[in-house]
Amino acid sequence: MTSTSVPAAALALGDDALVLSHRLGEWAGHAPVLEEEVALANIALDLLGQARVLLSLVGDEDELAYLRDEREFRNLQLVEQPNGDFAHTIARQFYFSGYQALLYETLASGDGPFAGLAAKAVKEVAYHRDHAEHWMARLGDGTAESHQRMQRACEALWRFTGEMFQPVEGLGFDLETLEPAWLAYVTGVLKKATLTVPDGPRKGAWSAGAGRQGLHTEPFGRMIAEMQHLRRSHPGASW
Amino acid sequence: MTTVTPEAYEAAFDAAVAADERIEPRDWMPDAYRASLVRQMAQHAHSEIIGMQPEANWITRAPSLRRKAILMAKVQDEAGHGLYLYSAAETLGTSRDELLDKLHTGRQKYSSIFNYPTLTWADVGAIGWLVDGAAITNQVPLCRCSYGPYARAMVRICKEESFHQRQGYELLLALSQGTPEQHAMAQDAVDRWWWPSLMMFGPPDDASAHSAQSMAWKIKRHSNDELRQRFVDICVPQAEALGLALPDPDLRWNEERGHHDFGEIDWSEFQEVLKGNGPCNEQRITQRRRAHEAGAWVREAAAAYAAKNRSAAQHTETGEATA
Q1: Which residues of A142-180 are buried (b: 16+ CB within 10 A; e: fewer)?
Q2: B60 alpha carbon, distance to own chain's centre
Q3: Cα–Cα distance for residue pair B313/B323, rounded to 1 Å
Q4: Can you tell me the distance from the alpha carbon of B253 to that of B257, in angstroms, rounded to the nearest whole number?
Q5: What is the pLDDT of residues A68-115, one digit of tens each?
Q6: What are the angstrom distances between the C-alpha of B13 and each of A77, A84, B16?
Q7: What is the average pLDDT value for chain B, to the nearest integer?
Q8: Per-residue pLDDT, A50
Q9: Which of B46, B52, B58, B68 is most worth mutating to test chain A (most A CB atoms within 10 A of its CB)?
Q10: What is the value of ipTM here, to two decimals?
Q11: Chain B within 8 Å of A145 (Cβ-Cβ)?
C-alpha cells in the first residue's frame, strides 16, 4: 500500500459515513416513535464521528465536507438515496451496516492505517446492524402492509448494493472478498423476516462503482446544496 | 380493623409536603394535585418533543461538522428528555399514548417559545443561550419538587440542559466575534428571541391561574415574576460578555432593588401565541401529527410482531411444561 493511496480510501469511507449521517439527520422530528428519534440520531452521530476521523486523515474535515462539489464526493450511491418511508430507511441501514460491519471487522483485524479507527467503529456498527436487523424482522414479519413496504424497499435499493464491493484504492484488501459473507448475511436476515431475496441485478450498467468515481444520483446534488449553503455563503468565516 | 378516613389521608399528605418529603406514585394524593402534575409534566414533555423541530430545522445546514454533531446530540437529548418526562407522567396513571393524543388534538399545550421560527443559524445559538437558559432557571427549582418522579427526572434533565446552554452561548460568541455578517446574524437572533424567552416564565404573578396552588403543594418553588427577574439579572452580564445588546431600551440596573429593571412584556403577543396564532403554531403541530400518522404502520407492525412472538414464546413454554 502506498501512502498516497490512503487518502482515496479514507475519502471513500469517510464520505459514506458523512452522507448517510446527513440522511439520518433529516429524520429528526419525523420518526414514527420517540425511541426511534433517539436511535436514528444516535446512529447518525456515530457515523458523523467516523466521517470526521476519516476525513481528517485526508485534510480539513470542513473544507472536504463543505467545499467539494458533487463530482468530487466518493460515497456509495446507496447512502445518498433519499430516506423514503421508514422501511426504505431501514433497508438502506440494513444493507449498509451489514457491509460496514464486515468491512470494519476486516480492517480492525489487520495492521493497516485504518485498524485503530475500525476497532472503535466495529462496536458502533454492531449496534447499527442490530438495530436494522430488529426492524427488518418487525416490519417484514409484522403486518401485511409493513411486509409489503419492507419487501418493496429491499427491492428498490437492491441495485445499489453491488457497488459496495468494487475495489477501493488504498484500503489494503480486496472488498470483493466480503461479498459472499454479505450475501449470506443478508439472505439469512431476509428469510427470518419472511422476506424474499430480491432477484434484480445488483450492478446496473450505470450504478456499478459509480459513486466511487464521483458519479452520483440526482437527489445527491440537492442534498449537498442544502448541506453546504451556509458555509459557502460566508467564505473564510469560522463557526 | 381500623378504617383510615379520607381526612387522615389528606392530613398525612399535607404533613409530608410540609416536611419536604417526596410524594411517590403509590402514595395517596389529592385528585387536584395529581391532575395538576399530569398537566404540567405533560406540557413539559410535549415541549421537549415540539422543541426538537426549530433546532432540527438546522441540522442539515449546520456550518461545520463539529456544530452539526453538537446539534444532533442536542436534539437527541430532547427526545430523551421527552421520554423521561412521559415515563414520569405515567406514574400518575396516564399513558404516553393518551398524552400524545391530547397534544395532537390541541387539548394539552407545549411551551409557547417553540412557535417562533429559526430563521438563521444564529437562532440555534440564541435558543441554546436564552431559551435553554430560561428553561434551566425554571427547572432547577423543580429538582426539589414535591413529586419524587418529576424531581428525579429534572435532576437528570437539568444537567444536560446546562451543557446545551453553554454550547449555545459558545456558538453565539463565535458568531459575535466572527465576521461583521456573523455578528449581525447573532444580534438579529438575540433581538428576536429575547422577549419570547422572557415570556417562557408565564404570565405575571397577578394573572397566573395555577401559581398559588402549585406553590402551596411545593410543585413550584418561586413565582413567575421572581424567576423572570432572576433570569434577566443572569443574562445582562452574559450579553455584555458576548458583545451583544439586549433589545430593551428600559433595561437598567436598579441600585435600590439590587436588580435590573426591564421593559413591559407584550402580553397581547403572548396571548395570541397561546391561542394558536403564533408564527409557527400550525406548522409545529401539523409536523408532529404528520410524523405520528405516517408512523402508524410502523407502530402497528412492531405491535403485531411482538404479539406473534409473545404467543410463540407461550407455546414453547407450554410445550416445555408438558414435556
Answers
A1: bbebbbebbbbbbbbbbbbbbbbbbebebbbeebeebbe
A2: 24
A3: 15
A4: 9
A5: 999 999 999 999 999 999 999 999 999 999 999 999 999 999 988 899
A6: 63, 53, 5
A7: 95
A8: 98
A9: B68
A10: 0.96
A11: yes
| Phi and psi at residue B147, to the nearest 5° | -90, 115
Rounded to a whole number of angstroms, the distance from the CA of A10 to the nearest CA of chain B is: 17
Please report the pLDDT score of residue B318 as a whole number.
64
- The verdict on B286 touching A (C-beta cutoff 8 Å) is no
Measured distance CA(B192)–CA(B239) in Å, rounded: 14
Which conformational region is residue B258 in: left (phi greater than 0), alpha (psi within -120 to 50 degrees), or beta?
Answer: left
Task: Name B147's bridge partners.
Answer: B23
Write the pLDDT tens digit of every residue in A163-215.
999 999 999 899 999 999 999 999 999 999 999 999 988 886 666 668 999 99
| Band (B141; pLDDT cuts 50, 70, 90) | very high
Q: Cell numbers 437527541 label which residue?
A: B76
Q: How far is B248 from chain A (nearest CA, A)?
A: 28
Q: Determine whether the interchain pair B69/A49 forms a contact, defined as Cβ–Cβ distance below 8 Å.
A: yes
For chain A, helix, strand, coil in percent to 5 are 70, 0, 30
Task: Give A8-67 pLDDT, tens digit per residue.
Answer: 999 999 999 999 999 999 999 999 999 999 999 999 999 999 999 999 999 999 999 999
Say how far residue A193 (Cα) sits from the centre of its chain: 22
CB contact under 8 A, A29 and B52: yes
Residue B322 pLDDT > 50, yes or no? no
Burial zone of B286 (CB within 10 Å; 0-12 exposed, 13-18 middle, 19+ buried): exposed
